[in-house]
Amino acid sequence: MGSGEFGLDMAVVGRIAAEIAAVARQGRQIALVVGGGNIFRGLAGAAKGLDRTVADHMGMLATVMNALAVAGALRNVGAEAVVMSAIPMQAICETYTSYDARAHLEAGRIVLCAAGTGNPFFTTDTAAALRAAELGCDALFKATQVDGIYSADPKRDPAAIRYDRLTFSDVIARDLRVMDTAAIALARDNRIPVIVFDIHAAGALEAILAGGGRSTLVSQ
């Protein structure tokens, strides 16, 4: 989270939290699914010899650390936020259930969903699509390092083509890999549009919700 390759940049976390809080004050219900790749990636750990299940559990713990940091930053700007983990750890945060998460959302709290799905071998993207389906979300916003979906990595290929709109079938058929196939299929089957945007673009989330900004919309 930030310009570094590892750890947390609390200035960046604070800016993002302020933007999320501003959107929440408009009366929108927000659930965040937080990743942990800035601390530990399960696949990377498995590639270095760790048992995949153990590595994925370590990655889930990293997402809880990030969720706690974001929740703290949200509270610092006056928002109510609650961390809910798919893996029970009552001394640190609440255990996720869709019923309790919906109750928090109805009460105006921002819900941070951590620890993925609670199971190894499932990505944060799949967890995001699952939570969006469980909570009846109107859309799934995928925050990335670029302003949408490209035909290739624009940081490596200057000829990469940026798309404004795609169908779920386009993403799968072209193997665009903005999210894993399971996540895309889950969003498609539940008719949840996916909006891909640049997390580093100041005001991007609010601009997109207002009908502007730069993003890629993936829908039916």
Automatic annotation (TrEMBL):
<keyword id="KW-0418">Kinase</keyword>
<dbReference type="InterPro" id="IPR015963">
    <property type="entry name" value="Uridylate_kinase_bac"/>
</dbReference>
<dbReference type="GO" id="GO:0033862">
    <property type="term" value="F:UMP kinase activity"/>
</dbReference>
<dbReference type="GO" id="GO:0044210">
    <property type="term" value="P:'de novo' CTP biosynthetic process"/>
</dbReference>
<keyword id="KW-0808">Transferase</keyword>
<feature type="domain" description="Aspartate/glutamate/uridylate kinase">
    <location>
        <begin position="13"/>
        <end position="198"/>
    </location>
</feature>
<feature type="binding site">
    <location>
        <position position="144"/>
    </location>
    <ligand>
        <name>ATP</name>
    </ligand>
</feature>
<feature type="binding site">
    <location>
        <position position="145"/>
    </location>
    <ligand>
        <name>ATP</name>
    </ligand>
</feature>
<feature type="binding site">
    <location>
        <position position="37"/>
    </location>
    <ligand>
        <name>ATP</name>
    </ligand>
</feature>
<comment type="subunit">
    <text>Homohexamer.</text>
</comment>
<dbReference type="Pfam" id="PF00696">
    <property type="entry name" value="AA_kinase"/>
</dbReference>
<dbReference type="InterPro" id="IPR001048">
    <property type="entry name" value="Asp/Glu/Uridylate_kinase"/>
</dbReference>
<dbReference type="GO" id="GO:0005524">
    <property type="term" value="F:ATP binding"/>
</dbReference>
<keyword id="KW-0067">ATP-binding</keyword>
<keyword id="KW-0665">Pyrimidine biosynthesis</keyword>
<feature type="binding site">
    <location>
        <position position="153"/>
    </location>
    <ligand>
        <name>ATP</name>
    </ligand>
</feature>
<keyword id="KW-0547">Nucleotide-binding</keyword>
<feature type="binding site">
    <location>
        <position position="150"/>
    </location>
    <ligand>
        <name>ATP</name>
    </ligand>
</feature>
<keyword id="KW-0963">Cytoplasm</keyword>
<feature type="binding site">
    <location>
        <position position="41"/>
    </location>
    <ligand>
        <name>ATP</name>
    </ligand>
</feature>
<feature type="binding site">
    <location>
        <position position="56"/>
    </location>
    <ligand>
        <name>UMP</name>
    </ligand>
</feature>
<comment type="similarity">
    <text>Belongs to the UMP kinase family.</text>
</comment>
<comment type="pathway">
    <text>Pyrimidine metabolism; CTP biosynthesis via de novo pathway; UDP from UMP (UMPK route): step 1/1.</text>
</comment>
<feature type="binding site">
    <location>
        <begin position="117"/>
        <end position="124"/>
    </location>
    <ligand>
        <name>UMP</name>
    </ligand>
</feature>
<dbReference type="GO" id="GO:0005829">
    <property type="term" value="C:cytosol"/>
</dbReference>
<dbReference type="InterPro" id="IPR036393">
    <property type="entry name" value="AceGlu_kinase-like_sf"/>
</dbReference>
<protein>
    <recommendedName>
        <fullName>Uridylate kinase</fullName>
        <ecNumber>2.7.4.22</ecNumber>
    </recommendedName>
</protein>
<dbReference type="InterPro" id="IPR011817">
    <property type="entry name" value="Uridylate_kinase"/>
</dbReference>
<dbReference type="GO" id="GO:0006225">
    <property type="term" value="P:UDP biosynthetic process"/>
</dbReference>
<comment type="function">
    <text>Catalyzes the reversible phosphorylation of UMP to UDP.</text>
</comment>
<feature type="binding site">
    <location>
        <position position="36"/>
    </location>
    <ligand>
        <name>UMP</name>
    </ligand>
</feature>
